[in-house]
């Protein structure tokens, strides 16, 4: 028989953890309300101590160890309590009883050592933190982002009655912002090579021109890659919308002037490496002539965690105000969404989920982003 004790905020939490750790055949053998030790415990909500058991022949060795420790702990606690009682009854004599005091001290030490220097309640909190950490790691959250989330959890949520997963959802929901800026005037897309800037421009142009019937103009600052101009030109021709190719900074001013009657001017740019600050500055000179703060960083959900901050910081000089996350259809774990949001520190404006123009732009909501990142939803 395996017996395990849990300190929890409520029975719901107890049931979840017991089922997770001992399996569905576990039975609850006792439960009682307790307070956290010390003055803090007096003012905080009561906790529940639940003891559960399961018939199990294949106990893991650390569980067996824990079982051995538990009876030992109880025994020492009992002795300590008796000694404490004795001590109270003979308060005046204690000073002259160095042996009793030493004995008490030793026992306290034993208790501390048994629980590795922490109280059962502290152990409990630590194990929840560990559980959260493992869960976020499994969903590909970046180590720095996990640290930030755990600090927030420890500071504001560890004392609540809520399940930790609900706390994490709340932390993420508060962090995620969506773009409220409407698509009006000029809008520029920047980002690394091959993330889907041109495809996203084509999707947006398609939606705006064909579905919303707005007057759309396209500009590309594409002086770099042969064939890149053709890609957008083809879309412009299919949709029958004006299209300008800009090679010099002066031509950018002229193109903006020529398209000034359009409701929306979408500006595509050549993919740049965030490591090449020369290229970024060159791009900056072009963008400054567009005279807009409607600048979006495009970044793929498949970007390696380690590269995300290099990109979000590398493009910072272009003063992007929004983030478009692409290629969600190419990954199965969506922690990168949160990593991008934490690192870019801007609202999310669009999510793209495939190569089809103009269809593959997903509906955007905070709830959806939270669920995707925690593995409760997916993009098929
Ligand atoms: N699976 C998937 N593929 C996408 C998505 N968006 C774009 N792509 C594909 O990614 C490839 C590159 O897309 P582009 O739009 O040319 O990327 P870009 O950022 O303009 O690239 P450069 O101009 O070279 O910097 C193409 O094959 C697109 O079809 C998406 O959301 N999902
Ligand atoms: Mg392109």
| Name of the top-level CATH class of the largest domain | Alpha Beta
What is the name of the CATH superfamily of the largest domain?
P-loop containing nucleotide triphosphate hydrolases
Structural class of the helices, strands and pairings? alpha/beta
Q: What's the architecture of the largest domain in CATH terms?
A: 3-Layer(aba) Sandwich
Total strands: the figure is 11
Protein name: Flagellar biosynthesis regulator FlhF
Keywords: Cell projection, Cilium, Flagellum
Organism: Inconstantimicrobium mannanitabidum
Description:
Helix content is 50%, strand content 16%. The two termini are 44 Å apart. Strands 6-5-7-4-8-9-10-11 form an eight-stranded mixed beta sheet, with helices on both faces. The protein has a three-stranded antiparallel beta sheet with strand order 1-3-2. The longest helix is centred in the first third of the chain and has 29 residues, at 61-89. With 380 residues, it is an alpha/beta fold. It has four domains: 1-58, no CATH class; 61-117; 122-175; 185-373, P-loop containing nucleotide triphosphate hydrolases (Rossmann fold). It has 15 helices and eleven strands. It has helices at residues 11-22, 38-43, 61-89, 91-94, 98-114, 120-138, 143-156, 164-175, 197-211, 228-239, 249-258, 277-288, 305-314, 335-344, 366-373, and strands spanning 2-8, 27-34, 47-54, 185-190, 216-221, 243-245, 264-269, 295-300, 322-326, 348-352, 361-362. The structure holds guanosine-5'-triphosphate and magnesium ion. Magnesium ion binds at residues 197-198, 228, 268. It comes from Inconstantimicrobium mannanitabidum. This is Flagellar biosynthesis regulator FlhF. Keywords: Cell projection, Cilium, Flagellum.
